[in-house]
Amino acid sequence: MFRFHTQFLTLLFVLTASAAAAHTGEGINTGFASGFWHPILGWDHVVAMVAVGLWGAFLGQPAIWMLPVVFPLVMAFGGALGIIGAPLPAVETGIALSGVVLGLLIAFAVRAPIWVAAVIVGAFAIFHGHAHGTELPQQFNAYGYAIGFVVGTGLLHLAGIAFGFLTRMEIGRAAVRGTGGLIALVGAAFLFGFA
């Protein structure tokens, strides 16, 4: 039992230490790996991208696959804008708001038409992509980095979709809506500078 706790604590410390370097590319030695870990190690990105999958699962077909496709496509466009240095105001605010808004949409079980949902998700994807693009470490290939952050984002969407399947049960719907509320709180913490 002691060995399990020691291993768990070691893993926790390693993940925590890595998260501190999530936005710098430190300690990651390839463009793909840096891009892949960027969304996964930044909680501001994680909550929004999991929320996209959750909301898609909550809305059902065709949103369950459409939203997780729209987000990375538009995010790649935002990433290209960031890489070429095109200005985009209030990027960090947009990222934080994505957690707040998407979390609230889930918490309040909002059933938006698919085109409205796609516009909301796409608008927030531009901010996430721009942040990824501007934080591209100079020594890495932009294409590898972009593929990495799209793959990392896709995995976070899949995690949200998987958790969203709980909506098939009454208690699962409550858990998903509660998670939406938690996502909104995390987004608010970033928005108001508490995180």
From TrEMBL:
UniProt cross-references to Pfam families, sorted A to Z: HupE_UreJ (PF04955)
Chain segments annotated as transmembrane: 40-58, 65-84, 90-109, 114-131, 143-167, 174-194
Signal peptide: 1-19
InterPro entries named among the record's database cross-references: HupE_UreJ
Keyword line: Membrane, Signal, Transmembrane, Transmembrane helix
Domain of life according to the entry: Bacteria
The name this protein goes by in its record: Protein hupE
